[in-house]
C-alpha cells in the first residue's frame, strides 16, 4: 500500500495527474489518467467520480452490489454481466449515478432478509418506513459541479 501511495505522489508531482483540470475533463479521461497509477483500478476511480466529484452519470459495471440490484429488479436467476448491464444502463444516462444509488439500496433490501447496510453516504439514521433519496445539489463553492446530498423522506 505504501508503494501505491508513493506511485500516486510521483504521478502528481510529475504533472501526469491533472487534478485542477478534472472539472473540465470527462469521466473516461479521468479514469484513464488514474488507472495508470499502480494500485488504482477503474472501480476506485468510479467511486471517486460519484462520491468526491459528484458526477451524475457513472454506472460502475463491475460492482457486485450494482449487479445484484439489477438482478433483483429484473428478477433474474443470475446477476447480469457487465456488458448486459451496460446495455440496459445506456437508457439511464445522463443520470446513471442515481440508478447506481437505487440499485445498491435494492440489493441491500433483497439480501436474505438482512437489514440494509448503512452506507457512508447515508444521512441520519432512518426510521422504519422511510426511504433514502439522493438528489444533486448545486454548490457554488464547487464551481457549479455537483455533490450528492442525502435526505430522508417518508413514503
- Which structural class should the secondary elements be placed in? alpha+beta
Which spans have pLDDT < 50 for at least 5 consecutive residues? 124-155
Cα radius of gyration in angstroms: 17 Å
Element-level helix/strand string: HHHHHHEE
Describe the fold and architecture.
This protein has 155 residues and is α+β, with helices and mostly antiparallel strands. It is built from six helices and two strands; from the N terminus they run ααααααββ. It has helices spanning 2-13, 27-35, 42-51, 64-74, 82-89, 96-110; strands at 130-138, 146-154. The protein has a two-stranded antiparallel sheet with strand order 1-2. A hairpin with a 7-residue loop joins strand 1 (130-138) and strand 2 (146-154). Helix 2 (27-35) crosses helix 3 (42-51) and helix 4 (64-74) crosses helix 6. The radius of gyration is 17 Å and the shape is elongated. The termini are far apart. Mean pLDDT is 79; it is low at 124-155.
Amino acid at each position: 500500500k505504501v508503494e501505491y501511495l508513493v506511485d500516486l505522489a510521483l504521478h502528481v508531482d510529475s504533472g501526469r495527474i491533472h487534478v485542477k483540470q478534472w472539472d473540465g475533463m470527462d469521466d473516461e479521461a479521468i479514469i484513464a489518467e488514474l488507472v495508470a497509477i499502480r494500485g488504482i483500478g477503474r472501480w476506485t476511480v468510479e467511486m471517486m467520480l460519484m462520491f468526491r466529484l459528484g458526477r451524475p452519470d457513472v454506472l460502475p459495471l463491475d460492482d457486485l452490489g450494482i449487479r445484484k440490484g439489477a438482478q433483483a429488479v429484473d428478477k433474474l436467476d443470475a446477476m447480469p454481466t457487465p456488458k448486459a448491464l451496460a446495455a440496459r444502463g445506456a437508457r439511464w444516462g445522463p443520470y446513471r449515478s442515481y440508478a447506481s444509488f437505487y440499485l445498491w439500496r435494492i440489493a441491500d433490501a433483497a439480501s436474505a432478509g438482512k437489514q440494509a447496510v448503512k452506507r457512508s453516504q447515508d444521512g441520519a439514521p432512518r426510521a422504519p418506513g422511510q426511504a433514502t433519496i439522493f438528489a444533486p445539489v448545486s454548490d457554488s463553492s464547487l464551481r457549479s459541479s455537483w455533490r450528492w446530498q442525502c435526505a430522508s423522506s417518508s413514503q
